[in-house]
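Q: A reviewer asked whether we had any structural model of the full assembly, not just the individual parts. We don't, so I'm hoping you can provide one. Inputs are below.
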Amino acid sequence: MSVLGGFDRNDRRLAINLSAMMLRDRFLGTGLGLLWSLLQPALQIAVYVYVFSFLFKNRLPGQEESVYAFVIWLVSGFGPWMSMNEGVLSGANAVTGQASLVKNMAFKTELLPVSASSLGLVPLLVSVAILTGLIVMEGRMPDWTWLIMLPVVCFQFIFVAGLSLLFGALNVFVRDLALSLPTVMMMILFLSPIFYPIETFPENLRDIVKWNPFYVIANGYRAPIVHGQLPPWEQIVYLAVLSVVVYWLALLNFRRVKTRFHGRL
Amino acid sequence: MSRDLMITCRRVAKSFRLQRQPQKWRLTLRPDRTPRRFEALKDITIDVPRGKFVGILGRNGAGKSTLLRTMGGVYAPDRGVVSINGEMSAIYEMGIAGNDLLTGHGFARRWFDLFSRPGERRRALIDDVRDFSELEDAFDRPIRTYSAGQKARLSFALATARQSDIYIIDEVLSVGDEYFQNKCWRRIRQRLSGGSAGIIATHDWSAILRLCPTSYIIDKGRTVAHGPSAQMVKQYLQLSGEDFANGARFDASLPMMVNARSLEDFEMPVLIDADERIDMLFGAAIEVFVPSFGWEHLLHLDPQPIGQGPGRIEVGLKIPRLPLKGGSYALSLFLNKRAPAGEMVGLDVRSWTVNEAVTLDVDGPSSSGVLSMPLAVRDFAAHG
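A: Here is a predicted structure for the entire assembly that you could use as a starting point for your response.
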């Protein structure tokens, strides 16, 4: 754990408790309670599948007859995106949203955005469950290439935790950030080759676009799930380096500014 | 750090940057290079010894809450050193922090999740909180339906459910009804006898007198005095600036100490100098300090009219068959006048809180109790 900034065993236990707390708080007082955490991503997937597969009648090139093939392709990109989106948005609000904890409890406040970013793992699990169901219905079986998703999940988590640490700290000083972030994330979504193939971009842009970390992460799931292939190895190496660098810079920045939180919360 | 000190603060300072609201464009064009700061703590040095509660007295805004949060590790000090020598339980503010849709039960579970210690029986702790807070049915209702008193009960029960080495308690005991306050006192004494140390910040000085052998006064972020609590409280109350009307005062010849004998008539002349014509009232009280319970009021004389000035007036304070056991008592004297609206205005006071009470040393047997109960045995048989 020292690679991730000197958190000890107590910190880890606290981080898990904080994640559980945030998850429970979000649905507290609702009729369906925690069921919503599964229902929400499932409904979002349903909406986008309906729009792109049945209204726009998009199909994968070469598999024009198969709705399944396109839905699997769509969900394998949109699911990871939903997960990252959820993690980043929760992370940006993690410090300001838990002001009472920050003011009344002695603990490493950097655990808040890290814990919040783990909330994104729930929609990811829902998506992978739906995908597994679709694959089986299509008559295929998950194969060994799916194992690449394990390191991808790890680096995705580190990357999202990094963004959360950055935005979570900034949002204490500039509250406009968390407010505008959903819109910005939506723009990033439509600028990334997630709802459409990367081939949509002109050839000369493709070499730039393929380093978009959100695309790289989405492709880390799409390649094994859709094609039974491993993503290009240079993308995985790039993701590993980028996520750790972003995480560390954000963590150092968080630790630098966190003593100033109390005047602002 | 000595092993007998549970908390030490050495020259601790903490300031907050003040946020400038207007001129957003400056934020984007040029970062604010000279942020204004509010120095909440400037120079604080405090020791909390093992097995003792220490009081922090200070007016609103003196820095009490910031100090406690800095001691508890919530705030990092800008300068100075805070060392903690043991496990800590803290209540920094009244009321419940967090989601008020949670039930009391859910909040208790969350509290023990977040502050959990390995190998702890959470269920027993939650049961203890349920019993101690006496919330009954409300324990399973959302916190947003709670009254301020109910919230106070819940948070006190949570913070003191476990035997900790150190308790940090901010202004808790001023909330809640007297019944519950007493319960809180009992629990703190229980924890104290279990070996805990702690620190209590409050402007309720009577609480400090009852619990803390020594205390500190802080003012504008500095420790200004440290000593026995009774003395500190006296000093603190003067800090608060109690004003007296002019016009009359006790004569300078009033002794600092008088002697008396148990069960004998006690008589003491009190000279009063009046500059002008005032309707004066004179009152007196005899009190005794009982450690960990505070000042007990034993005898009391309601303010009586004693005439008008100007000039010197002599009042004879007389207590027939003084019913006190041997020991040292505080004799407080009050000189008041009646204001036009009818309320009493202080002219001069000699009491342990203001100036200095007259020490009353009583000679006599010092058995248990403080008052002698006079018993008249009448022989009914002799009178038929």
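A: Points you may want to mention in the reply: Chain A has one domain: 8-263. The radius of gyration of chain A is 19 Å.
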